[in-house]
Amino acid sequence: MNPEAIAARVSGSALMKLTKLQIHKYRGVAPGTELSFSPTRNLVVGRNGTGRTTLLDLLSMVLCSDFSGLVHEEFSLEYELTLLGMKLHVRARNEPRSSLAESAEAARAGGKLLPLHTPEVVTHLEPLLEATLRLAAPATQLVVRADGSGLFCEVDGQPGYSRSMHWSVLDRSVWTLIFMVAQYLGPGVKERLKELLRRTFLLAPSRFDEALGMFSHIGSITYAMEIQGDEVFPLGLMSLPTWMPAWLRERVERGPPPNAFEFSHQELEGNFLAKFVALAGFAAGRLRVEVLEKRTYENGGRLGFGRFGFHFTRKDGTELNQAQLGSGQKRLLSFLYYLDVNEDFAIADELANGLHPRWVEACLRELGGRQAFLTSENPLLFAHVPFGSVEELRAALILCGAGIQEGRERLVWSHPTTEAAAKLFEAHKAEGLPLGELLQAHGLW
């Protein structure tokens, strides 16, 4: 891929959005919780212990559509996503077997399936994953369902594919199930799913934590990819900038891979390293990528790589590596890297931690068109989020609290009432006071 094509990937617009989340049963969250999200900035506010980080982790799980961490827990969720003329509704449950008998019977009616065999998972719970995907122009509806009887799909109400499985439903993500089914669908439907699968199957957002977890992750993980014909296939979930596989392939095709590749901040416009060098006031920056495994790329091949290392040059010519960066610099570098990995979403816990006010403003600006879910105990974060209407402000605010329901303390997550949102908006507009200050004054934070 030439530099112009790679750059186009860096600046590509974010298109996928999470529109709704319904929580019927999840840990200590009040049943019946329903959240509808802003397509741009979503601000999660509340005191300590009200589940802000719990909500961000749940959002990450939903966007990854991977519930493998809940195989021994009861839960029941529904959510909706939109992308390029597609609307996806997902049900994900893990409940006592009797409560899902009707769903299992419906799945068996679609095809004759053998019972699911999961000898490694001993649980009294019955998982169910169901995705209903509606495509426009021409209108098509695809339903993919996996439960204790197996995997089944239908296209426009007609049986499309079914099979028994020898692994737990929750061992696979919803995206994996759609990918599996897509291999057996007609070329027309399969082609229309390509962009959905590209944006979800391999790349999905984790939570950018409140400390330096992402920074440590960048330097410790290893990756691999294979080339078959003209296609590059990442192996496993890839926390890589979207432009990097093409950049690596271009380097490999120049000749036998060396022991390491080096990437300069000036090499590609708009990349995370160039942005960090500019914001941190360095003269130059380099990323070193070690090659850990080499196989010929003739008629297919494989490259293993990782152990990323950074080197920076100050304006006086002195150099330093990533270990010599300050805590705020490390956090800024890793957040810009995180944004280069995730085209559509950002989930950031305590984003303002350790960052200078100008860097906080820059980070919010770099979010671009992504749908972001942000928490902060620092009012500084809210000073840079504009609102054009009462409805926009109400959709963007998610208030986290706690309350007693049916004799039990529950996490209560909600949007402000329309009346409260109107008061906030008018005060913000008329008095020019920061949103954080207004939230505290109105008892909402």
Protein architecture, described:
About 30% of the residues lie in helices and about 30% in strands. With about 450 residues, the protein is an alpha+beta fold. The chain folds into 3 domains: about 30-65 and about 340-445, Rossmann fold; about 65-200, no CATH class; about 215-340, no CATH class. Strand 10 and strand 11 (about 230-235) form a beta hairpin. It starts with a helix and ends with a helix.
What characteristic shape results from the CA principal axes? globular
Please identify the top-level CATH class of the largest domain: Alpha Beta
Classification by helices and strands: alpha+beta
List the domain count as a whole number: 3
CATH-assigned fold name of the largest domain: Rossmann fold
Number of helices: 14
N→C terminal distance: 49 Å
Write a compact overview of the structure shown.
It is built from 14 helices and 19 strands. With about 450 residues, it is an alpha+beta fold.
What's the topology here?
Elements: H1 3-10, E1 17-26, E2 33-36, E3 41-46, H2 52-64, E4 75-83, E5 86-96, H3 101-109, E6 125-135, E7 140-147, E8 150-155, E9 158-163, H4 174-182, H5 187-192, H6 194-200, H7 213-220, E10 222-228, E11 231-234, H8 244-253, E12 260-264, H9 272-280, E13 284-294, E14 301-313, E15 319-321, H10 327-341, E16 345-348, H11 357-366, E17 371-375, H12 390-396, E18 397-405, E19 408-414, H13 418-431, H14 435-441
Parallel strand pairs: 3-17, 3-18, 16-17
Antiparallel strand pairs: 1-2, 1-4, 4-5, 5-6, 6-7, 7-8, 8-9, 10-11, 10-14, 12-13, 13-14, 14-15, 18-19
Helix pairs in contact: 9-10, 12-13
